[in-house]
Amino acid sequence: MAESSQKFQAKKFQAPKGTRDFYPADLAVRRHIESVWRQVSINHGFEEIDGPTFEHLDLYTHKSGPGIVSELFQVMSGKDAEQLAAIRSGGAAPYALRPEFTPTLARMVAARAPELPRPIKWFAIPSHFRAESPQRGRLREFMQWNVDFIGDDSPRADAEVIATAINSMEALGLVSSMVRVHIFDRRLSEAKAAAMGIEGEKYIGLLWIMDNFGKLSEERLRAEFNKHQLRSEDIEKALAYAQLTARVRAAGPLTTETARELGFTVEMAAPVHETLRHLDSMGYGGWCEFDPGIVRGLAYYTGTVFEIHEASGAERAIAGGGRYDNLIESFGGPKLPACGFGMGDVVLANILKDKGLLKPPEEYLPRPDAFVIAANDDVAARVPAIVADLRRQNLHVRQSYKTTRNVGKLLGDAGKCRARYAVILGAELNATPPRVALKDMDSGEQREIPLSELAGALRAPAGIPPSLEGGG
Ligand code: HAM
Q: From the CB of residue 382, how many other CB atoms can be counted at a distance below 10 Å?
């Protein structure tokens, strides 16, 4: 067959805007954060779940509210020409990439509610997709740790959820002076909104305005109001409310008078204060504050709402969550109260980096137990069998793929990949019994040991085990 005369055309591609390529050291840093999230979840009694990366679009238009819906990546199968035509003429695709996990979780609980043990305590660490304008702390694809406590409507459950979030930050090295957990209760803002004549769909619009107050200009907020069922007098009321909460926050702790101005009584704020008391009893009081400026943009929250921010307020939220007691029922399940949060990896990693709480990325890569070096051509052929045997014994073993037998250079390679030991195979491998040189890469100490004892020596926590002392 004649060779094709057509020349191969190279074409360079970049990762899509707002997404990240994770090279090994980058992924190792992400895995470090995820492993803390996972361990802290398990320590607090949560079990891991996962769900689909894309869902029926309606799952998100159902209850999440206008903010999320405007950021959906819509998806279709690509097989259906009719669907494509419908989308081109202004219709929606049948699916959307997951912008958040809560609707999936609510769907999963609703589907199996009778058989699930109570309370249901679940966590998940999936990737999420939002069609945002990429900027610091905001990407189009990000990881988000979700922790949700279902079947308990008490402030104690709210406090346990919030404590889980704080404990993860503690475990990553943050301290209470570096972050603030702002806590409020939706029922309090709802009471004020109702008194202002802002209810139902209009209240969802008010939440959106409150949530974006201080993030978007007032001009922009006014320009957006039409999309959120608010009339111009409503938006002025909503802005006045947002300004008032900002003023009250700046004035310090809540008093009877400031509560009255915000439209609620101190008694109405009792549940959120009980949550704060529980957090205090767990030693987390110093991290948390009552904050009437927090309402959250998502439509489904019904009670406690909270956001975690870097203390100076410079960054976007590290985490946000709250109580959503009607969502599961709205997906056809039983009436089950629930409370949870989502914590993203992007803002958190920025903050950890800025505060010097991350090591150089390479240091998160797994350290090999051994790097095997052949010092001469005679023994080189035996490397694969020795390496395979060590790996079969669950050891992390690397080898040189270079043709050089220059031990000094190869030890340099062992150092570069941060191996704990270099195993040097030389003439002694042909002795009876065969022996190898074992070099501790941290201390520089080198000993000769029988090949039969190599796996045991590599498994030893640090240094050469005493039983092998003098074995050279
Ligand atoms: P959310 O406030 O939309 O809540 O997101 C929670 C966290 O996810 C944010 O504080 C932020 O750290 C991260 N995040 C959100 N969008 C982006 C983005 N575009 N780029 C980077 N990070 C981002 C929820 O998603 C709720 N479903 C959380 C929840 C769980 N509520 C109850 N259970």
A: 16
